[in-house]
Every structure is written in C-alpha cells, then in structure tokens.
Amino acid sequence: MKRLALLAVVLAAVAAGVRPSGAAAVVGDPAPAFTLTDTNGQTRSLADLKGKTVVLEWWNCDCPFVGKHYGSGNMQKLQKEWTAQGVVWLTISSSAPGKQGYVDAAKANAWTKEKGAAQTAVLLDHDGKVGRAYGAKTTPHMFVIDPAGKVVYAGGIDDKPSTDQADIATAKNYVSAALAEVTAGKRVTTAISQPYGCSVKY
Asked: Could you tell me where the beta strands, DSSP code E, fall in 113-197?
C-alpha cells in the first residue's frame, strides 16, 4: 500500500509538470543547470547558452554502440551539419575513474581528433553529477535543449538499437528530426524515445 501511495504521488507530480527530487530531466521542463570543464580547460555553463539550441551527447569511447556511430562517421556528420547552423553540441563523458570509457582531457582530445569529431566541446563529468541530473542511462543518450532552455527531446539517437553500422542507412534519426523542427520553430514530433547503448559507467 505504501508503494502504491508513493507511486500515486510521483504520477501526480509528473502530471502537474513537477520534477521529483533527484529525477531525470523532463521533456517540456527547463534543462537542469550545469557547469563543467571541457577538455581544453574552458568552463562551459548551460546558463551561458540561453538563446541557442543545445545538444547533449553522452559518450563512452569504449562502447560499441558509440563505436557504431563514430566508426561509420554518422555522429561526425550530424555534428558538422548542425554546428554549422549554430547549434551548440556538447559531448559529455560521465565514466568514473577506473570504469570503462574513463578518459582524461588528453585522451579525449586524441580520440576525437582521430575520429574527426566536430562537436563544440567535450565535457568531463567524472563525478557523474550532470549525468545523474539528466538521468543519462546509456552511451549515447541524447538530449536537445531549445533556445528557451527547455528540454525538447530525450532518448536514443535513432530507432535502430544495434551495433551494426549497416542499420544507420534505414534508421530514423530522432536527433536530426528534433533539431530540424526546433530550427523551423515547430513542436518536436517525437520528443521522447528509448535510449540504447552501453550503460553509463558512473
């Protein structure tokens, strides 16, 4: 009975647009504020990006699902296409020291240079605070934040939850679709999807 009562409270809060304490980022709500240092030592704050469309991409260089999108050039293509249109693309590493995918700044920069990545910056979230604030579960886990600072998309990069690069050609890319709609001033049609990939290694 206690569990049912608690569930009812949470559901009521969600219905009212209230984020329960410690819950993930909610589509339609203001994006959780954060400040992180990038791999070049620059401080990056979400508050400084108001008025811009922002993509958050959770990343683990050792994850085969991440490897699918970078090995094929798919992620780099998206980064180049949308940053050229003024979108700020932030790649975030929340792998803890000693866990799969943990990188220091030098390793992250070397990896992104080797892959030809074109994000705005790679941010280091080694204590996992930002990842947990957003409820980032997988790599990649993608979020789109509109110029007003609200989360307008959260979920997978596309609808093909596999490590097979061949699937990219027939996949519906949710992130690209969301960005196109935000840029056009439209409501995001698919605002939530199931994220897929390796678990974030907090």
From this structure: 121-124, 138-139, 142-145, 151-155
